[in-house]
């Protein structure tokens, strides 16, 4: 088990409905040393790519994307959830269905912060059905920028998002892939990964 899988085993809580709670160390209270290490790990995995920007989605991706962007020495941009119906032409827009909240959010990124010529590393905390990542990919490509890779902290391998994105040919790295989990016993089983 790697450092993240160990932490998930120790402090993650499996909730009914296929939700893994990691709010004591990742997305409510944050273990800064762990998040720094996540940043370094993604840097190791993607350092051979040309990366000019790190892109994530608010709110819980921000800390991890910050840690990654710090290692690359590039800006981090986060897609904002926007309630406004009147979106002006200065933003890229994507519709993202939230796995945890079961609602749809319109997310936006200002055209000032992403453009043709950018090489983007997309980072998020969880990958379930892939809606959040698909939205970020669509925003990046609408800008004429290149998706260099996608880094996910926890992929739920039993949901279809990871397979769909890999099948599209993107380079997706997940630090932990949950193969199965059980709310009653609290067990989490991880997929074996090559590294
Ligand atoms: P997707 O768009 O891939 O279906 O879901 C990804 C988004 O949903 C992530 O940005 C994350 O915020 C949230 N999410 C999905 N599954 C889980 C989960 O098991 N636990 C938590 N805490 N968030 C999740």
Structural summary, described in words:
It is built from 5 helices and 10 strands, in the order H-E-E-H-E-H-E-E-E-E-H-E-H-E-E. An 8-stranded mixed sheet has the order 5-6-4-3-7-8-9-10, sandwiched between helices. By secondary structure, it is an alpha/beta fold. The longest helix is centred in the first third of the chain and has 15 residues, at 32-46. The radius of gyration is 16 Å and the shape is globular. The mean pLDDT is 95. Bound molecules: guanosine-5'-monophosphate. Residues 19-22, 27, 60, 98-100, 124-132, 156, 161 line the site of guanosine-5'-monophosphate (5GP).
Number of strands: 10
Q: Strand count, sense and closure of the main sheet?
A: 8 strands, mixed
Number of helices: 5
Q: How much is the radius of gyration in Å? A: 16 Å
Overall 3D form? globular
Instruction: Give the class from helix and strand content and strand pairing.
Output: alpha/beta
Provide the helix percentage: 25-40%
Q: Give helix and strand order, one letter per element, not per position.
A: HEEHEHEEEEHEHEE
Range of strand content: 25-35%
Low-confidence stretches: none
Bound molecules: guanosine-5'-monophosphate
End-to-end separation in angstroms reads 11 Å
The largest beta-sheet arranges its strands as 5-6-4-3-7-8-9-10
Overall pLDDT score: 95
């Amino acid at each position: 088990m790697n450092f993240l899988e160990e932490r998930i085993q120790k402090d993650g809580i499996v909730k009914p409905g296929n939700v893994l709670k990691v709010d004591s160390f990742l997305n409510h209270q944050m273990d800064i040393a762990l998040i720094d290490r996540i940043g370094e790990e993604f840097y190791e995995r993607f350092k051979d790519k040309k990366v000019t920007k790190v892109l994530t989605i608010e709110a819980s991706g921000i800390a991890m994307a910050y840690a990654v962007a710090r290692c690359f020495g590039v800006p981090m941009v986060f897609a904002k959830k926007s309630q406004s119906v009147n979106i002006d032409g200065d933003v890229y827009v994507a519709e993202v269905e939230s796995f945890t909240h079961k609602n749809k959010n319109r997310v936006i990124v200002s055209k000032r912060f992403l453009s043709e010529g950018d090489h983007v590393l997309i980072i998020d905390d969880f990958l379930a059905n892939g809606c959040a990542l698909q939205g970020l990919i669509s925003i990046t490509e609408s800008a004429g920028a290149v998706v260099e890779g996608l880094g996910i902290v926890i992929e739920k391998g039993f949901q279809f998002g990871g397979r769909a994105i890999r099948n599209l040919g993107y380079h997706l790295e997940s630090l932990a892939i949950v193969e199965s989990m059980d709310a009653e016993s609290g067990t989490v089983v991880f997929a074996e990964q090559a590294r």
